[in-house]
Amino acid sequence: MIRLEGVAKTYEDGTVAVTGLDLDVPANTLVTLVGPSGCGKSTILKMVNRLIEPTAGRIYLDGTDVTDADPVQLRRGIGYVIQQVGLFPHQDIATNVATVPSLLGWDKKKARARALELLDLVGLDPAQFAKRYPHQLSGGQRQRVGVARALAADPPVLLMDEPFGAVDPIVRARLQDEFLRLQRELGKTVLMVTHDIDEAVKMGDRVAVLAGGGRLAQYDAPAAVLGA
Ligand code: ADP
Ligand code: ADP
């Protein structure tokens, strides 16, 4: 589903972030990408959704070379969740989530109904949360809104960059479990970045271990990664 072939990225200032990376993320699997800070994880995700361009190599999404795709069209098929989910502070939660369907041209009523459905899906009771503002949410609740928003256009692919990194360990464990259930239920293809090996092993159907410079040190089932 997601395929990287010989992908490299050297930033304009000469920093080598990724070198010669080959990686296959099969459909409906959750692959975790784990490695120390600065090893190129975020850079890899940003290349897949074309926030930045690789300096070499090819990236395919469902067989299509992403460099040939219209970026707007491409991102409709990709949900993106980052650690610091940026919510519009002056819009309530339902409106925040309805932004994407609205951008897609859905009518207001339909977009709002979809937003309420999504809030429910990520465990935020719409009756309680729809009219709250971002500052009235906990960190964990904000991350849930981030997941809801990423799911709004029903994309087949989710890219997640340390999605549960900013919340305390107990909340994190709950969000992880709930997300795993959701992923299986919805059948999404997920590439998720983390620096936490425990999280990588717990969540991944397969675990890609990165060394410095975005080089793939290992790509295997979680049990095999732990045994190494
Ligand atoms: P990770 O997500 O694994 O922490 P990143 O992909 O953010 O790593 O960064 C990989 C390397 O690229 C790091 O050395 C980082 O400092 C560098 N880097 C990231 N973004 C830029 C940029 N815009 N310009 C120059 N160097 C960058
Ligand atoms: P933030 O709101 O965290 O600052 P942006 O302003 O970049 O992030 O994004 C605004 C909205 O667009 C968010 O819903 C985000 O999930 C979505 N988005 C941004 N970039 C992408 C992308 N490359 N693919 C899919 N969705 C994206």
UniProtKB/TrEMBL annotation:
Stretch forming the signal peptide: none
Keyword set includes ATP-binding: yes
Keywords: ATP-binding, Nucleotide-binding, Transport
Assigned EC number: 7.6.2.9
GO MF annotation: an example: ATP hydrolysis activity
UniProt domain ABC transporter: residue ranges: 2-228
Family the entry assigns: Belongs to the ABC transporter superfamily.
Protein name: ABC-type quaternary amine transporter
Species of the source: Nocardioides marmorisolisilvae
